[in-house]
Amino acid sequence: MHLELTSLPSVVDMQDPLNEDQAKLKQNLQKAERKKRLRSLMLTLPLLAFIMITFVVPIAEMLYRSIDNPLIAKNLPNTVKSLSQWEQQGLPDKEAYNALAEELIRLYQSKSLPPLASRLNIEVAGMRSLMMKTGRKLSTFEQINDYKTAMIKIDKRWNNIEYWGAIKNLSSKFTISYYLAALDFRQNAQGDIVAQPEHRQVYLNLFVKTLGLSALITGLCLLLGYPLAYLLATLPDSKSNLLLILVLLPFWTSLLVRTTSWIVLLQMQGVVNDLLLYVGVISERIQLVHNTFGTVVAMVHILLPFMILPIYSVMKGISPDYFRAARSLGATPTIAFIKAYMPLTMSGVGAGVLLTFILSIGFYITPALVGGRSGQMISNFIAYHMQSSLNWGMASALGGILLLTVLIMFYLFNRIVGINNIKVGN
Amino acid sequence: MALPKYCTPMERVGFVGFKVYCTAVLFFLVAPIIIIVPLSFNATPYFSFTEGMLTLDPSAYSLRWYQDMIDNPQWFNALKNSAYIAIAATIISTILGTIAALGLANRKMPFRNAVMALLISPMIVPVIISAAGMYFFYTRFGLSQTYLGIILAHAALGTPFVVITVTATLSGFDHSLVRAGASLGATPVYTFFNVTLPLIRPGVISGGLFAFGTSFDEVVVALFITGAEQRTVPRQMWSGIREQISPTILAVASILILMSVMLLLTLELLRRRNAKLRGLS
Fold it and tell me: What's the pTM value of the predicted model, to 2 decimals?
């Protein structure tokens, strides 16, 4: 007679607590695992808090500036209220003139008119002086019954719907006007979104130019970098390590040093002009720096290691057997390289191309120093609005668009390469 | 790489062409940096090789630009500032970055990808945007034109490198060693300092060097949030190039090149040591 061991009453008695223990064990393990996961999260919290405070919040706050528009709503509340029914067709009614005049007098006397006037001047040229002048003159009048006539007498531009339209367009607490301007659009007096007049269209061209230059630089880097990466990956280790140091040297050399050396080399009295003259390629010295050419050459040099290193690290992992197999099956070296080898390197190429492109669209230093007037990119205009024109909303809007572009690129990078596979250096 | 014996003449020509091309690319990479060094010994205030320099006439060479640099208190001050700021920023980012990497090494950590993306964002966001954001924010809290402000900013920019290198080093780390430590009664902190840290030290140091290099070479944020008192070397070079470019800059550049060569060699040694520790070589 065969008796199943586990069905013996004594064994069953023993197993019950065992099962219980096992369940308990599982529970304990799960608990421990959860604790471990939470502990991992806790470990990242100090740095997360640090990055949030020193980096993420400042950028978020800057982006907020690109839509923030408190001045008009805060300083001209009555005007905004009386303009709320205005259809932006004919001139606004008398009530609006009265409200604006009273508020202008009050602002002028409390000396808080200039920031408001400057803000409106960004939308309509000349509005700063108009507001200041009107405020000043209105304050000198003793008693005014008809503000509308008085204002038009001070400046007949108050007869123009353009200036009223600007106030109305900016009357809400948030505005898209900076983003419109950053894309070469504007709101006209009727509140419709129209293209900027041609002589004021700067930014779309600038974006196109930045993207175009970045694409050119990335393409050149790929053209120069791919063969070199192949050489590095196929040489024996002792030789390739030596050559790799030559690639890493520019990577580790200060950006300003590299930019300086290009300025020195390419200037009118520089080494490259000397050499070209000596060889006889040119008959007189040519302008090589402080233009787009200088920017492209210097940036290709600076970004080339970022192209070479990811391609090299992918190529390093490809077995030479594939190439040999293709050859033994009758492919010529060229065909074998294109059909068997190149497709395997595509993840490295993708990483290198995206990395180079991301870095070059946000480049600031090199275009600023070697770009002259024609080699300026989007970053340089952000700096210009930050430091010279002090149109911070505009700087923030341009920054927002640049950031969005970079984040889209980075999203692609993450999909292709994976955020965990980013390597730095060797 | 070598060609097999049976290859055709065309292949040989192509192979030689390929090698020439690669040599030219390497030349393009290195020559512009190397050429700065002899130019910095120029006896004349020009940025080109003089007749005398080409014929190796000793009198055409001089150390006057190095003398100039040493005599100018601005450069010395800038070097002091750069070193101070970079060291302080490196300490902050290495400590915080290593602790965070210990957490990120656990692949099952909740919100891992989101946290990782946030932590490495300072490396991805164009530096002009970081600088503009920091300018507004730091000014509001009175941190602009202070050492603390620029140190915090540089620490933020440097942490992604520490996080990435240490996380990568930890991915090859045998976690049963930590359990072994725990089973022998060691506290997690004790285990970290006596088991984990000695093994991941090369990764921590190279991450730290990256952070140091980032801070030492950073100019855009420095342009926005430092004052005359906190002028760093890159900031000083920037104004040197913008205002009147003098060969003194070449002397400074040569010294920086020497520094980067040393940094590069240190990193190479660390990489070899790390490979050895992990038994890869």
Answer: 0.86
